[in-house]
Amino acid sequence: MTEQCSGGGSISIDETSANSVTPAAGDRATLTFTNCKESNLPTLNGAATFRITNVSGTLGSTTYHFGLAATFDNFSFSDAAKKLAITGDLLVSASQNGSSTVNVGLSGSSLAVTTAVSGTTTNTYVLTAYSLSGTEANGVISMSGKYGLSGSSIKLGGSFAYNVETLQPLVLSSSTGFPRSGSFIVRGAPAAVTVTALDATSVRIDYSEKGDGVVSSTNTMTWSAFDLLN
Questions:
Q1: CB 4 within 8 A of CB 10
Q2: What percent of the chain is modeled with pLDDT above 70?
């Protein structure tokens, strides 16, 4: 079916489900937006498809398993000046096993995000072969992952390509913004940078010029200062 958006444009919905009330594996929906504008929302264009891969237990309870596969085809959000577009695939998993512990995973083969200002592309980020996981228990979050990242960024001075891998899970409180422990490595060609959380305030950066594990230089800074580098 196709519906008109309240502020102009339209949304087309192509849906297949085994049961209109209870989500089930195989349920699928494709949403196609054409200059769709709703109140207090950006203009939507492009298409997004969502498919339930597995579901068990009771969603919203403390015992469930849920999987969702998504694909995006130039799915974009835009306003008068800015635009963000997404293309690629994403697999989401979430579960609880009768406790307060929540497990979440994100993975996929390729996911590209492009930003533009006044019609001119400003940044492009492409995740490849990515796998990210996180667990929250009693207000403590633990995260790990592995992915390739490439693209072009004005802030990073142009084109870039590197691989990131967690060495020790990053652990932080759900009430704070920065890890208090854990480490990850960023591998370029050939240099590598290892980032180690010293506590929730400070972080150590070890630079290896040849990427062979031999530290060429070390720098310690606050997480806030490190965040401004990204």
A1: yes
A2: 99
What's the 3-state SS for 6-66?
CCCCEEEEEEECCCCCCCCCCCEEEEEEEEECCCCCCEEEEEEEEEEEEEEECCCCCEEEE
Residue where the block lists tokens 């068990």: 56
Q: How far apart are CA 193 and CA 218, in angstroms?
A: 10
Q: Is the pLDDT of residue 156 over 80?
A: no
Left (φ > 0), alpha (ψ -120 to 50) or beta: where does 175 sit? alpha
pLDDT tens by residue, 79-129: 988 999 999 999 999 999 999 899 999 999 999 999 999 888 889 999 999
